[in-house]
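Worked example 2:
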Amino acid sequence: MSTYRDRLAALRAQLAEQRLDGFVVPLTDEHMSEYVGSYARRLEWLTGFQGSAGTAAVLPAAAAIFTDGRYTLQVRQQVSGDDWDYVAVPGTSVAEWLRANAPAGARIGYDPWLHTRAWVEEAAKALAGQGAELVAVETNPVDAVWPDRPQPSDATLAVQSDDLAGKSSAAKRADVADWLASQQADAAVLSALDSIAWTFNVRGADVSHTPVALAFAIVHADGTADLYVAPEKMTDAVAQHLGNAVRVLPRTAFAPALHEMRGKRVAVDPERSVAAVFDALGQGGATILAMRDPTVLPRAIKNPAETSGHRAAQARDGAVMARFLRWIEAEAPKGGLTEIAASDHLQRLREAAGAVDLSFDSISATGEHGASPHYKADADSDARIERGQLYLIDSGGQWADGTTDITRVVPVGEPTAEMCDRFTRVLKGHIAIATAVFPDGTMGAQLDSFARRPLWEAGLDFAHGVGHGVGAYLSVHEGPQRIAKPNYPGGGPMEPLRAGMILSNEPGYYKAGEYGIRIENLVLVEPREIAGAEGPMLGFETLTFAPIERDLIDTTLLTSAELSWLNTYHAEVVDRIGPALDGEDREWLIRKCARVGAAA
């Protein structure tokens, strides 16, 4: 079995064979996905890095891996510093590193099916300044040296009923056609897998924990569409559902079709479509309109059927979490329980309750592992959960009517005063977001500091966003909505928050080498009626219901308004998920949700 050092050496040998002096390996696929199928996990195969965002750059005598603040600890645990330099983004971009390290005359390769046009232009410009050249490859050199690379999934498509989707695929395509008419365009290319799943009301199983299928689509101005998907993925039910207005073609026919759009005005999303799509359209003589995928905003703004389904999914998921939290509270102090055993138990509970899948690999982290926000336990790292630690569980379920994502923290034994202080400051930030009221048109970046202020007041902070968008039985990470600092890596342009958007509310605190804290609920942006308001106002409806650990709360740090929110929230937890519990589970829930603080 090859080591990661062997794989790096093999890649360098392959680069020399292809007359290349370097190569860039991003963590994405030909759809610019965050979560990718096993066949596209080139970065993980090459380096060992298991995070969900990162890039590697390889030169003959140097190699670097680029990650943001979420993975500062994780990348050092998983990737050898003897072979790779650790580079933090956005402080230093891949293009800047190449400019500083690539020798004059170097030919640096890239796969045009794995990068955006903007990245290609930035990198090419940076290299040109050093007399080097960026070269598109036809064959990815990583694939050439990856002997047991998995094949793309052959799982079949499934229909997402109109009752759950809230709108038919024909109606959605008609909306796209209306948008194309307003832009005087002939067609729109859809590359993002969640956009395709949403537009055609289909789901798939080609990406772990994300119910999407590997496909491309072109929607035309008359409301018809071409869906490019492997023939073996189709079923009679899906064909009947799509109808005659959707032409189903092999996925391999997509690139040739782009070359045949001469004279057409074609809308392409520069953030969600790869450079190869732009290249093919340009070579074919199409007029390219670089515009956002017209389904992105409608997909983000949930309709009544989607929000109703999400609330139902949250009620089931909350009951699962209550059973799990009671179990972990009882079992962890006994000793012998490991991170993987704990997350496996939670997965079984979700499956028993009817979840289709997890919504991501659970982050089951005890002690110092909790200080890595995106830690993933494996056979080598799987730690025993011991007394004196904080155990963090960040998990979610894919239910047919909604996607969930929740984080809770449990003390194993007696927590320290510092743990309680930090937990309570995180809780105060969480409450600040949950209770925020803001004018229509407000950007998530304008709310980000609400969650950080209690930590800032103690000289503390955390290196991830406060909130990400969430799909409707789709990706657990959905754009364009988010709550984060304006320069948050990989987030794209900031987007005003709109009624109907679902986001996470997840401030945290991480003490390297000791513990991690995060409190996460999902929230729905909703209109707020305020007497005397001079314009439309918005706020958040909390959607997630499970106890927040009372033994970690220092009530002396909470204001009366914060205590009131906590007690009201816990009363609603009992109302929402209590009916699904019985016996000792229900008794435990009532105890955990009892009133706390001066208002008790």
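The chain is about 35% helix and 20% strand. The two ends are 61 Å apart (CA to CA).
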